[in-house]
Amino acid sequence: MPFPTIFRLLFLGVLAFACAPQALAAEFRLVLEPATIDIDGARAPALTINGTLPGPTLRFREGEQVTIHVTNRLKDKSSLHWHGLLVPGEMDGVPGLNGFKGIEPGETFTYRFTARQSGTYWYHAHSGTQEQAGVYAPIIIDPATPDPVRTQQDYVVLLSDYTDTDGYEILRNLKNDHEYYNRGRRTASTFLDDWRDNGLSETLKDRADWGQMRMDPTDLADVTGYTFLVNGKSPASNWTGTFATGDRIRLRFINGSAMSFMDVRIPGLKMIVVQADGQNVEPVVVDEFRIAPAETYDVVVTPREDKPYTIFAEPIDRSGYAAATLAPREGMRGDLPERRPRTVLTMEDMGMAHGGHETHAASGHEGHGGAPAAATGHEGHAGHAAESPKVETTGKKPRGWADAGTPPGARALKYADLRAFTPNTDTREPEREIVVRLGGSMTRYIWTLNGQNAEHTAPIALRYNERVKLTFVNESMMSHPMHLHGMFVQLVNGQPADRLPKKHTVNVEPGKSYSVLLTADEPGEWAFHCHLLYHMASGMMTKVTVATLASGHHK
């Protein structure tokens, strides 16, 4: 064969190989190890990923083959779970499910999966209380097609609650005294305040009702005393994202807290919610939102002035705050808004009308898992700088779990506002309803699903492609962000069937019920639990099994 002919064939072969579709790949190496971190100039213990808290952001593209090598240098067995990602069961990272045994100290485990989605997610340990100690970090998956959300800046805002107290010590404290961390109990002074605001008869009746139930309406958060962080930085350290005036900025909010619900606002800026739990939604303009542990919300803001703006997040028990800054230049700091007063629970939060009559919500009742509806009451004022912001006490005090003290005229996100950006492909009616009762004993600090804790609860068995309705009935005074691994659910939130929004974590308010739809299209064993770490550790967990059609067995 003449030389030119051989050359042409070789050239064409190389060209064909180069032009053929190649599977994209992303590879990461993560090391779990103890370290000390800096909190306001003090060295503090933590468990870290690659030496940092939070760990490194993993960013890859939809359709890529993802390989993640995880080396465990902790003293205990560990794991990483890819929260909200659609992955094979054996790659989901929950020890004891799908044959995954965890990662022993000194060993390396390699996770492999194809990125089947896009959006904002996160990853964290699913072993013991390691997540609380610092084993968590963001995930961003870029879409394979052009992103409908176009911005000039793109920042992760990961909220978390840090403590240097060992997680098992926290759990022991809660077991010994469920009010160990309740530092806002009512006193003689608050009795007089309530008498003034509500009258003596109403106040005495309220005290008697709570006394009869042996519970405290100020018990909003099981654990308090945290330092609240944004991307690992305290308010004093002031994480800053820069912008040019007029930039559209995407903020990817992730609540990586172990136990803290956060009320988020950016005084002076409207927020356009464009994504919930990694799934695009039709834009919703809000002034604030409540984000439960494990939830994510992407918002777009557009600063029109050459000045700093404060990202401000308060836990619902108002025991502190997380703060960061959006600014035209590094080194600037936004004013801190005045902090809002804490609410108190009501008989309605216990599933009771005042006087003890049951008022459990019907299936599908709107719960403000994303945030409370705008409520009358305290009016916050932004723009006053202070080292320790004064607590505003004027106006009607907030009452009820869902009352965040949203000023009149301001809009807070609620689940009913969420509407899927892309029509759902499965709009079938459910074949059956499964009721999941959320309960437990505060005094013994045991949390249950359908009256059973994790050691005794039976799995929820589903057939492959079965369409079911899950109805959560919260019979407790605490809110529960319920997370299902491996699949998304559709909120029954009043939107048309083809626009029901998808989420991986659904918050169910105290004393309320909420329904979701599920298509069981991912074979395997999937963890199903409350994402409050110490609720899960105290029994509020089970598994959902999805059987394959061919064999009837589970992968």
Folded structure, characterized:
Helices cover 11% and strands 33% of the residues. The protein has 555 residues and is mainly β. The strands form six sheets. The protein has a six-stranded mixed beta sheet, with no helix packed on it. It has a six-stranded mixed beta sheet with strand order 21-20-23-28-25-26, with no helix packed on it. A hairpin with a 6-residue loop joins strand 18 (309-315) and strand 19. The chain is globular and about 55 Å long. Residues 1-21, 353-395 and 551-555 have low confidence and may be disordered.
Task: Provide a short characterization of the protein structure.
This protein is mainly beta and 555 residues long. The chain has helices at 3-19, 130-133, 167-176, 188-198, 200-213, 533-537; strands spanning 25-39, 42-49, 58-61, 65-72, 81-83, 108-114, 119-124, 136-142, 153-162, 227-230, 240-242, 249-255, 262-265, 271-276, 279-286, 288-291, 296-301, 309-315, 322-327, 432-441, 446-449, 460-463, 467-474, 480-484, 489-491, 502-503, 505-508, 513-519, 524-530, 541-547.
Q: Which structural category do the helix and sheet elements fall into?
A: mainly beta
> What integer is the average pLDDT?
85
Q: Give the total of beta strands.
A: 30
Largest sheet properties:
6 strands, mixed
